Amino acid sequence: MTPGAERPPGRARVAADRRRRRSRLGIGEGGGRALVVAAVSTLIVFGGLGLVVVNAPGWPQVQDKFLNGRVFAESFPLIVSAFWVNVRLFLIAEVFILILAMVVAVARSLPGPAFFPVRLLATIYVDVFRALPGVLVIFILGLGIPSLRIPGLPADPFIWAVVALTLLYTAYVSEVYRAGIESVHPSQEAAARSLGLNRGQALQYVLLPQAVRRVIPPLLNDFIGLQKDTALVSFIGVVEIFRQSQIRQAGAFNFTPFFATALVFLIVTIPLARSVDWLLARERNRRVAGVNPGVGPGVTVAGPTVGAR
Amino acid sequence: MTGSAPALRIEGLHKSFGDLAVLRGIDLDVAQHEVVCLIGSSGSGKSTLLRCINLLEPIDAGRIVIEGDEITAKGVDVNRIRRRIGIVFQAYNLFPHLRVIDNVSLAPRKVLGLSRAAAEARATELLDRIGLADKAREYPDRLSGGQQQRVAIVRALAMQPDLLLLDEITSALDPELVAEVLNLIRELAGNGMTMLIATHEMSFAREIASRVCFLDAGRILEIGPPAEMFSAPRQPRTQQFLQRVIDAGRL
Ligand SMILES: Nc1ncnc2c1ncn2[C@@H]1O[C@H](COP(=O)(O)OP(=O)(O)O)[C@@H](O)[C@H]1O
Ligand SMILES: [Mg+2]
């Protein structure tokens, strides 16, 4: 925190915001005229591309096989209702992930030689599950374990899907948390400990609240990855959106159901991705303006890029 | 715990960071209600000494005794000891995610076990004393540097410590904000708070200190009443240091 760093006065701040917003779209300064130029050139480029595609010799067949209105109308409701399976999967796994990842992150930051085994175990877990392709983990857990037929273990593939996604994503998210904890300046822990708080209390009341606030944007990034990866569990027999679209595709000899599925993911994911970008940009602007409520050099933690495939 | 024991006694304190010997045999007594100022050039070990006293840094050799209790003995409960020693840092180190009132009342609630109402009453009273009761519900970043530093002092006071350590608490402040912080320290000294103060404010040290202690390369080179130290320092190194301070216009 720079002592004496002041907020820019109201009007300058608004103007600065406007400039930033424009420059984010790459339009730059110059007001109305620039906007018109941008609109016209966009129209020309996308319109031109569209014309090329629609006038291609194979377009009628492609349209019939991939963008068939009748097949779309038939399959879309079924696909949307199958998507609820993905939503449930996502929400249940996410709750476990957020809690377990915190446990793993704290375990990895325990100090002293006595906790070495705990740190070692947590580190091995994170390394292993970040290294394995997600599909493999889902296969091994979803097909392998049930076929062992160990009494007492559930056979429902949905449960194993939740377990697999939780194990995979907890590894990523724990790293995000850990980076967040490490980004809180050590002077905060010193201040907390100097008041007599023990290490657990310092974590609970001082370090973790600040760490979590900083990692919300990268956490949302991981949510997006998880949301898409719910489609992977189709491989172990969970009838979710992707499996349903395969069924529809096979039934109608037509690929339009895949298009419908893609549309559902786009509708759900793009707003999320946009809001993450917006959050990150806001965080960055705050830091630039010097009003970041964080400590010291306001650090935003970049989340690990997710690709569990 | 006897009334006649010094508030703080340091014997043969050594501290290194790796190969770097930062404190090389410190002996110092601070009597009850005494204010001792630590002066010395940057890097001489003032902050490290204060951090060792508060057990924020493990020491390599020596003893630290607070009111007759050795706090550097094996197996002592460091959390209990830290309650008795307050420290205020140069960079305030307020908790940015907590409102002013929660910054001040957190430790009384969680460490001393006060109820929220009791802790907040204590915090409000302290904030009122420094004229910041109206800022109780603000977040620290909405306060000026001087206000933040006074909140940090009050946060330490809320634990009712026997000893207060201040580490260059005005160094990060704009010049016009220094006075409000020093006034608060003056008031605390007047009320008999035992303090060990690392400072670059020589005129303040001269005015407030019972004794001034010149630290040089990890040793106490000279210690004495401020009148003596500032007018007739005996050691050539002390003379040099004070001359540099005078040249820089800080005395
Ligand atoms: N945590 C640390 N690790 C390594 N060296 C340190 C650490 N803290 C302080 N030092 C070193 O110890 C010396 C004394 O530092 P410090 O106690 O901060 O001096 P002062 O407060 O008098 O300016 C400096 O050389 C500094 O670089
Ligand atoms: Mg220092």
Shape of chain B: globular
Structural class estimated from helices and strands of chain A? mainly alpha
Oligomer: heterodimer
Helix content of chain B: 25-40%
Span between termini of chain B = 40 Å
Biggest sheet character of chain A: none
Based on helices, strands and strand pairing, what is the structural class of chain B? Answer: alpha/beta
Strand content of chain B: 15-25%
Order of helices and strands of chain A: HHHHHHHHHHH
Tell me, rounded to a whole number, the average pLDDT of chain A: 82
Low-confidence stretches of chain A: 1-10, 290-309
Number of E-state strands of chain A: 0
Low-confidence stretches of chain B: none
**Structural domain count of chain A:** 2
CATH class of the largest domain in chain A: Mainly Alpha
Write the CATH fold name of the largest domain in chain A. Answer: MetI-like fold
Features of this protein?
heterodimer, A: 309 residues, mainly alpha, MetI-like fold, 2 domains, 11 helices, disordered N terminus, disordered C terminus, B: 251 residues, alpha/beta, six-stranded mixed beta sheet, four-stranded antiparallel beta sheet, 9 helices, 10 strands, globular, binds adenosine-5'-diphosphate, binds magnesium ion
Q: What does this protein structure show overall?
A:
The complex is a heterodimer of chains A (309) and B (251). Chain A is an all-alpha fold and 309 residues long. Chain A has helices at residues 10-25, 31-54, 59-66, 69-108, 116-131, 134-148, 157-183, 186-194, 199-229, 241-252, 256-289. Chain A is flat. Chain A folds into two domains: 1-55, no CATH class; 68-288, Orthogonal Bundle (MetI-like fold), CATH 1.10.3720.10. Chain A has eleven helices and no strands. Chain B is α/β, with parallel strands linked by helices and 251 residues long. Chain B has helices at 46-53, 78-84, 100-110, 116-129, 145-157, 175-190, 202-208, 226-231, 236-247, and strands at residues 8-17, 20-30, 35-39, 61-66, 69-70, 85-88, 163-167, 194-198, 211-216, 219-224. In chain B, the strands form two sheets. In chain B, strands 6-7-8-3-9-10 form a six-stranded mixed sheet, with helices on both faces. In chain B, helix 3 packs across helix 4 and helix 5 (145-157) runs parallel beside helix 6. Chain B is globular, with a radius of gyration of 18 Å. Chain A binds chain B through residues 1, 3-4, 187-188, 190-198, 201, 205-206, 209-210, 213, 291, 293-296, and chain B through 51, 54, 56, 79-80, 82-83, 85-87, 89, 91-97, 106-107, 110-112, 139-141, 144-145, 148, 155-156, 159, 172-174. Adenosine-5'-diphosphate binds at residues 17, 20, 22, 40, 42-48 of chain B.
